[in-house]
Amino acid sequence: MSDDYTIDPEAQVGHVHLKVSDLDRSLAFWRDVLGFEVQERIDDEAAFLSAGGYHHHIGLNTWLSHGAGPPARSTTGLFHVAIRYPTRSTLAVALRRVIAAGIPLDGAADHGASEAVYLRDPDENGVELYCDRPRQQWPRRDDGSLALRTEPLDLNRLLGEDS
C-alpha cells in the first residue's frame, strides 16, 4: 500500500447504526428530544431516522440487544456519535430540548474549531451535539496545523443564542 494515500475529500460519514435494548425508549430520545424523523420502522426491531429526509443518519436496532444492558464504560466500542448543527442558534435549541427532557449532560467544551455538549442516550451511547465555527476562525499553530483545545463552554451564553 502507498503511504501517500488520503481518502477523497468529498467522502463523508454516512450514518451510524446503534444497538439498543428498547426501540420505543430510544425513539423517545432520538426522535422526540433531538428531533430526527423516522424514515422507516420495522416492528419493534429497528428504526431508521434522519434529518431532512435522507434515508437514514441514525439506525437503531434490537436485533442482538433487545432487553440488554449497556456495555461497561471501560470496554472498547463507540465513544460517541457527533451531531453537527448548522449554527450556534440551532445547537442552543437542541440543548434547551435536552435540558427540558431532564437528560443530564456529561460535559460541555469549547474546542476552538467547535463548541460541543456531551450527553448519553438511553442505552448509554455517547452523544455529542456541536456546531463548528467558521473555518477562518479555527485556531492554528505556526505550521498551519489545527490547535484544538478543550476549554469550558459557557452554557448560559449558548442558551442565550436562541432567545
The SS-based structural class is alpha+beta
Global Rg: 17 Å
Write the element-wise H/E pattern from the N-terminal end onward: EHEEEEHEEEEH
Give the integer mean of the pLDDT values.
94
Spans with pLDDT under 50 lasting ≥5 residues? none
| Number of DSSP-assigned strands | 9
What is the share of helical residues? 10-25%
Instruction: State the fourth-level CATH superfamily of the largest domain.
Output: 2,3-Dihydroxybiphenyl 1,2-Dioxygenase, domain 1
Instruction: Tell me the span between the first and last alpha carbons.
Output: 53 Å
- The shape, in one word, is globular
State the CATH topology of the largest domain. Answer: 2,3-Dihydroxybiphenyl 1,2-Dioxygenase, domain 1
Strand content: 25-35%
CATH architecture name of the largest domain: Roll
Query: Going across the major beta sheet, what is the strand order?
Result: 5-8-7-6-9
Q: Output the number of helix runs.
A: 3
Tally the structural domains: 2
